[in-house]
Amino acid sequence: MEHQDVKQTVQDQFGRTASAYVKSDTHAHGTDLALLVEWLAPTKTALALDIATGGGHVAKSLAPHVHSVFATDLTKSMLAAAREHIRQERHQNVQFVLADAESLPFLDQTFDLVTCRIAAHHFPHPDEFVKEVSRVLKPGGAFLLIDNIAPEEPHLAAFLNGFERLRDSGHVRCLSLSEWTQLMESTGLHIEKQRVRKKPFEFLPWVRRMAQSEQQIEEVERCFINATAEQQKYFDLTFAEGRLASFRTDECMILCKKTS
Question: Which PANTHER family has this protein been placed in (predicted)?
C-alpha cells in the first residue's frame, strides 16, 4: 500500500472508531499515563505537544501540569472527539491542531515537551516522525514515546505485525526497541530512561475496536490459533472453550532529551 493510501486508511478507520478510542480502557486508564507525567516532571511554564493524540488521554494528563498543550492528530473526527472529552474535564489550556506526525506545522524549537503514545506503529515513515520531534523540541527538551514494539527476532516480529495488519489495515509496523534507539540517537535525542513491559489484551475488545466484520474477527483469531508453540509462548496466548481469550505484547516507554 502506498504511504499516502495508508494515511487515508488511518483517517477513515479512526474516523469510524473515534468514540471507541476515547472510551477504551487500554488507552484511557493505562498506568503509563501517571508514569508519563512523573518521568517528564513538567513545569507550569512548559509548552507541550502531544502527537497523534487519539482520544486525548495524554493531553488531558499533562494539562494540569503545564502552561499549555497542543494536541494534534491526522484525523479530524478523532481530534473533535478528543476535544469534547478534554473540555468535559474543564481543561482550558489545550489547543487542537490537525497535523501529520511526519510533517508538523510548527516552527523549530517551539516545545519543551513532546509526547506520542500508542500511535507510531501507524506512521509510514517513523524516521521522518523522529526528525520532526527533534526539530520542534527546544534544546534540552524532553520527548516521551510509548508504543507497542516488535521482538528483536524477525520471525516473532513478522507474526506480531501480521496479526496487527489483519485486524487494522492502517497498521504499518511495530519497530523493535533497537530500531527506535537507533532512530532517536541519530537525530540528537539522547535516551535517558526506558522500560519494556508485557501488555495484556483481552482478545474480543481489542479486535472489535478495529474489525469491520465477524469474518475479519475470525481471520484474526485463526492467525493466533495457528501460531507455532514458540509464538504462543512468547505472546502468552490463553484460550477458553476453544476460543482465544487473551494475549500479551511488548510495549516500550522511552524518555529522551534533545542534546542540542
Answer: METHYLTRANSF_11 DOMAIN-CONTAINING PROTEIN, METHYLTRANSFERASE TYPE 11 DOMAIN-CONTAINING PROTEIN
Gap between the Cα atoms of 127 and 201, Å rounded: 28
**Cell numbers placing 161:** 505485525
pLDDT at residue 89 in the model: 83
For each of the domains in the chain, give its residue range(s) and CATH number, in order of start.
3-152+170-200+251-258 (3.40.50.150)
- Residue 121 neighbours by CB under 8 Å, 6+ apart: 147, 148, 164, 171, 172, 173, 174, 175
* Its pTM surpasses 0.85: yes
- Torsions phi, psi for 184 (to 5 deg): -70, -45
Residues 213-247 pLDDT 10s: 999 999 999 999 999 999 999 999 999 988 999 99
CB 245 within 8 A of CB 232: no
What are φ and ψ of residue 212, in 5° steps?
-110, 0
Cβ atoms of residues 103 and 126 within 8 Å: no
Q: b/e string for 44-68 if b means 16 or more Cβ within 10 A?
A: eebbbbbbbbbbbbbbbbbbebbeb
CA–CA dist 66, 127 (Å, integer): 28
**Phi/psi-derived region of residue 174, left when phi > 0, alpha when psi is between -120 and 50, beta in every other case:** beta
Q: What is the pLDDT confidence band of residue 260, given thresholds at 50, 70 and 90?
A: confident
Question: In this structure, what C-alpha cell is assigned to residue 12?
Answer: 477513515
The amino acid sitting at 89 is E
Strand pairing of 111-117 and 47-51? parallel
> For residues 231 and 244, what is the distance between their CA atoms, to the nearest angstrom?
14
Hey, which bits of 183-242 come out as E strands? 189-202, 238-240
